[in-house]
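residues and backbone:
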Amino acid sequence: MRRFTTIFLLLLSLFIGDACAYAATPAQKRARAKEIQMRKREAAKRKAEKKKAAKAKAAKRQRIKDGKPLLYVYTYNLKTQEPLPAAFVTVQELNARPNRKPKISKASDNKRSRVSKGLPEGQYWASAAKTGFFTSDTVFFRHKEDEDAVQLYLYPETRLTFTVTDSLTERPVVANIIVRNPAGRKIMQTTSDSLHATIAVLLDDRIPFYTIDATAVDYFPFHDTISNPALFTGVRMNPKEIKSFVLHNIYFATGKTHILSSSEPALNDLFRFLSIRPTQRIRIVGHTDNIGSDRSNQILSEGRCKEVRKAMIERGIRPERIEIEGRGERDPIVPNTSEDNRQMNRRVEIVLI
C-alpha cells in the first residue's frame, strides 16, 4: 500500500509541474527564452576567449622556440602624453646595411597606437614620424624578451604663416627669408612669392625664440625676433628710396591723443625702420578730418604726433632725430564727404629729413 501511495504522489507532482509550466504567461516564456539565449552567448564568449588565450599562449611558445620574441612599439603625443595613432614607425637592426629593408615599417594602429611584430633577439633602433609633428628621438634598445615594449614620443609642430610686404604700399615683396634658432642654425631658408608673399614655417614652441632675417633688392634688410608666434605680424620691408610714408594701423582713442594698444605693431615697424637707419631724422606729421573746429583739430594733430614721438623715445630712439608737426585738417588727401574718406584723412605721416 505504501508503494502505491508513493507512486501516486510522484505522478501528482509531475502533473502539477506540467500544469504550472502550461500556465506560464507569454511574457514569462519570452523572458525565460531570453535568459537561456544570454547564457548560451556568455558560454560561447568564454569559450572563444579561452580559445584565443590558448592560441596566444601557443604563438608565444612558438615565437620563443623560433627565437623571435614579440616587440610592441607605442607612439605618443609628447605635449599631451596621449596615444598618437597613425604615426609611421620604423624599426631596424642597429648594424644593418644602409639599403636593407627595415624590420618594421608601418603606421601605428588607431585602437592602441602601436605596432607589433616578432623579431629575433638583438640590438635595434626605432623612430616615428607623422605629419604635423617633429620626428621622434631615435630610441636604441636590446630586444630579448617576449612582449618587449618601446615607447616613442612625437612633439607637435607650430605652423607660423606670415606675409612679406612693402611697408608703404602693402604689396608683396620678393625677398630671401632665413629663420634661425637660438644657436644660429638655419631652420628655414626660402624666397617669398611676388604674387602672394605668404610664407609658412614650422616652429617648436619649446624653443624660447627664433630670429628672422629678410633681404630684398632696393629694400633695407629686415631683422626681428619671434618669441611668440601668435604676435608676429609679418615681414614689412622698408624701401631705400623714399621721402615719406603713412604709418598704417596706428589707432588713437576717439577725439583724444592716447595711442591704443592695437597700435603696437605699427609702432614697432617705425622703431625697426629707425633702427635700420641709425642716422635718419624724421618729422612726424599729424592730420585730422574736418570734424570739429580748426583749433581743436590742430591741437589734436599735434598731441598725437607727440605721443608717437614719445613712444619712439621710450624704445631708445634719440629725441633729436624726431621732429613733429601738426597739420590739423589742412591737408586732406581725399574730400571729407564720407566716413571712409574722413578715416583716410585721419593719418600719421612720416617725412624723412
